[in-house]
Amino acid sequence: xxxxxxxxxxxxxxxxxxxxxxxxxxxxxxxxxxxxxxxxxxxxxxxxxxxxxxxxxxxxxxxxxxxxxxxxxxxxxxxxxxxxxxxxxxxxxxxxxxxxxxxxxxxxxxxxxxxxxxxxxxxxxxxxxxxxxxxxxxxxxxxxxxxxxxxxxxxxxxxxxxxxxxxxxxxxxxxxxxxxxxxxxxxxxxxxxxxxxxxxxxxxxxxxxxxxxxxxxxxxxxxxxxxxxxxxxxxxxxxxxxxxxxxxxxxxxxxxxxxxxxxxxxxxxxxxxxxxxxxxxxxxxxxxxxxxxxxxxxxxxxxxxxxxxxxxxxxxxxxxxxxxxxxxxxxxxxxxxxxxxxxxxxxxx
Length: 349
Fold this sequence. Notes:
Layout: H1 2-15, H2 22-36, H3 61-69, H4 76-83, H5 85-95, E1 102-107, E2 110-113, E3 116-119, H6 123-136, E4 141-146, E5 156-159, H7 163-167, H8 171-176, E6 178-183, H9 189-192, E7 202-208, E8 214-223, E9 238-243, E10 248-254, E11 263-264, H10 282-295, E12 300-308, E13 311-318, H11 323-330, H12 337-348
Antiparallel strand pairs: 1-2, 1-6, 2-3, 4-5, 4-6, 7-8, 7-12, 8-9, 9-10, 10-11, 12-13
Helix pairs in contact: 4-5
């Protein structure tokens, strides 16, 4: 599988009209090899593009591995809550962290709703369960996520007015995985103008420095496309960097190289122009993340934050963040002093 992925990336690189000339790439590759003390295969994910003039500001594979593997940044007490969507939803409810309301959940065929455990042995019982949930809950739709999956894998939505259709042939999926059933967020109308088919979330990275200060390292916005209900770049969506000072979108977005590596100035579904769009409640979103880190003091975490008409809400968090996305969206995370200091701290430990 990895061989096919690498071949796909190579094809994208070879066909990309936006790549630097061979002489420039050779100089930069040699420079990175000497500076980073590794063969910079990561260069061909994004840095070969003409726009990546500050190629030294991007994380190398070795530096990403340092951030992922170090034991300095995470404690099992915190990651146990953050990695599992059900645990996080239950904890957030107790700690008054703003997150989508937990409606129900299931462990295989055992479904839980309002302090009741209900056995759901077949498709008919599955439909009956959700009919009962909608009859007693003030929600028009429910969003379902596997409790420990990443990248939007396995997510779907069940609507009140067509729940049987939405649940068709879903029983096997339910009993083979554990799902968290939450209210579907109402997205801010200004973000709906860009794309209303999915919740388009901010990926905000927080860091607790060696001096015990909470810093926001970067923010990147992720957008879904077409009829997909998720915004994850790994599921076909794309990213747009955020200007941290003004809380505005940058002028173009970027697909992962696995998705073709294309640069986009307008949303492919709506045609909306990203440049200068001011994200509603951006400051409040960063403040919400900081307050949450005060409660769950994991040192280096990616937070997925949706913007509703009433303000930001945390969808989920991950200590094992896909940092390459933020690196590209931010235009090189090594421009951030706190992250550079963190790498120095890890290397010296």
